Amino acid sequence: MAIATFDVEFTKDGSVFDGAQLTALTAGLGPFSDLLVLSHGWNNDMAEATCLYDDLLGNADRLLRLREQDVVPETLCAFTDRLRGRTFAALRIYWPSKKFADADLIPGGGAATAKAEKDNFDAVRRVLDELKVDPQRLGDRAVDPIRHAAMEQAKALLPNLATAAAQREFVDLLRRMLDPAAAEQDDASEDFLSAAPETLFANAAMPVTAPGGGVNGGNAGISDGTATGLLGDLLSGVQAAARRIANYATYYEMKARAGAVGGTGVADVLRQVRQHKPSLRLHLVGHSFGGRLVTAAANALPSNTAAVSMSLLQAAFSHNGLSGGFGDPPRKKGFFRAIVDEQRISGPIIITHTKNDKAVGVAYPLASRIAGQNAAALGDQNDPYGGMGRNGAQHTDEADNVATLGLPGTSYAFKPGRIHNISSDVITGHSDVTRIEVAYALLSAAGAVT
């Protein structure tokens, strides 16, 4: 493979787990002009993350090898010319993510099972059991004893959740596990931590309609595996509310962890990398919650950082995250707006987004419901709590919506300092981000960094 790889593993607080990995990275940068900085999303173990990296880098390697051919298709000449003479390495980040709102929340993902669970709390118990796990490293399944005790208390409350007292205690047990410093306006997490528990239950008890435009169009049903199916969101009542609140706590924890690992650990590694080789071009590439991780790392870079691009592949954070102003007056800036205002990313930022991404469609209808939004369809570009991987960057003047994800040879007009929303309906689902079209787009963005 033409792309050399370096692995660095981070613990949940953003510390480098093995300093020898960082030493190998900084010592090995000499031959390279460009470093791809890759972050997985909500994978469960090393094998899944490594498979994602291998597949994506394999396609990138195929494209870079076109430079060695005597004859290159005319549509690829500009691409190969821009990258000629450049040598690529990849930093593969491993961090302790875990699955959020996966299909196993309803075994089989079908309407029959959802109906069977409608009158009990089995699904809520599974989510609460998952919340007992607090991995220090990727793949760690150790149960934290304090969290175990708290979630057992929460499970004991389930039969009485129709009462205000039980609702207050249930919400309080979940909130105690969460870092309040990670709360923000973009995703309703401030509401989640501050609203009265009875209000949270009332909001979360209402059925959620998935955004239209999925594989079956319109208001998707439980059986199609959409966000509606994954969360049982056609259901209502106290069971559905408890399930959504517990799922939102899982989302909150993962987004906080991605921010901590990116904003502290990865950002520090990037500073050390640049100290060892100031001329090295950096290309941040994040999938899912890894998109939030690399964005948090970019947010920690100095103003006017030269020679950096960023590719967000079905990113799991707010579509207002880069916005210069959203919401009712006084309009708010996105959580990561400083990246744009202070040019912490000097090169292009590209964002793949598609209505086919049902996983990003899980968290953001939840956020809307937590905040008490009551729309006909939640999670699309008009939802104040929509997701980046579903809709691209919204309310962001620097963003354009011109590009469509295409095969190698597609002509992209990626420009430094611009945000490019890439309509990516060729992507079939949340994790379908290793395909050659994606590799070509991110290398095209890298080629725009001189």
UniProtKB/TrEMBL annotation:
InterPro entries associated with the record: AB_hydrolase_fold
Name the UniProt record assigns to this protein: Alpha/beta hydrolase
